[in-house]
């Protein structure tokens, strides 16, 4: 049998407790050869409050924990009877492992990528420029580029709409 990643359903808000409990149980029951890693999928994002950039961690899948393990009756029993675990994800009582590309995507989302800005903006939304050369101008969001953390805003200058590229921290909701 080979190791694979399985998704475990938990009580909402108990993901980190389940992770700690499961890691303790694995150590105390000497299951390190069958249960390898326990992850609570998190991603970092930054948001702007009062003009300051703040880095926060957010659960990607609230209510779920990932477990890398070899599925045997013993390992299933250890995970399933951990406090806070409500069951494995899969039809009936048979857990289905995640596909490798799904695992890679989740792992990449957790740490390999740069923190992503929290999107509090939407296209067509009115905003006011709070810093930079266009300070105190107001406009409408025309385009959002989350990879670069930039917005294209239509600002009214000299009686016509002019597109201006601004960073998230240069504008606020109007």
TrEMBL record:
Keyword Calcium found: no
GO CC terms in record: cytosol
Keyword Transcription included in the entry's annotation: yes
Domain of life assignment: Bacteria
Listed SUPFAM superfamilies: N-utilization substance G protein NusG, N-terminal domain, Translation proteins SH3-like domain
Segments forming domain NusG-like N-terminal: 2-110
Example GO BP: DNA-templated transcription termination
InterPro entries per UniProt: KOW, NGN, NGN-like_dom, NGN_dom_sf, NusG-like, Rib_uL2_dom2, Transcrpt_antiterm_NusG, Transcrpt_antiterm_NusG_bac_CS
Domain KOW, residue spans: 120-147
Function: Participates in transcription elongation, termination and antitermination.
Protein family: Belongs to the NusG family.
Protein known as: Transcription termination/antitermination protein NusG
Natural source organism: Capillibacterium thermochitinicola
């Amino acid at each position: 049998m080979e190791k694979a990643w399985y998704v475990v359903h938990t009580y909402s808000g108990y993901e980190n407790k389940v992770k700690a409990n499961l890691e303790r149980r694995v150590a105390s029951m000497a299951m390190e050869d069958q249960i390898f890693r326990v992850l609570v999928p998190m991603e970092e994002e930054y948001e702007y409050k009062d003009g300051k950039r703040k880095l926060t961690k957010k659960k990607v899948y609230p209510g779920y924990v990932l477990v890398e393990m070899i599925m045997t009756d013993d390992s299933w029993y250890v995970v399933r009877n951990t406090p806070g675990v409500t069951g494995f994800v899969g039809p009936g009582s048979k857990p289905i492992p995640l596909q490798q590309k799904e695992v890679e995507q989740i792992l990449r989302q957790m740490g390999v990528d740069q923190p992503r800005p929290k999107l509090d903006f939407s296209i067509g939304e009115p905003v006011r420029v709070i810093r930079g050369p266009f300070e105190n101008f107001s406009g409408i969001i025309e385009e959002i580029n989350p990879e670069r953390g930039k917005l294209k805003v239509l600002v009214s200058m000299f009686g016509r709409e002019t597109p201006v590229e601004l960073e998230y921290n240069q504008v606020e909701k109007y």
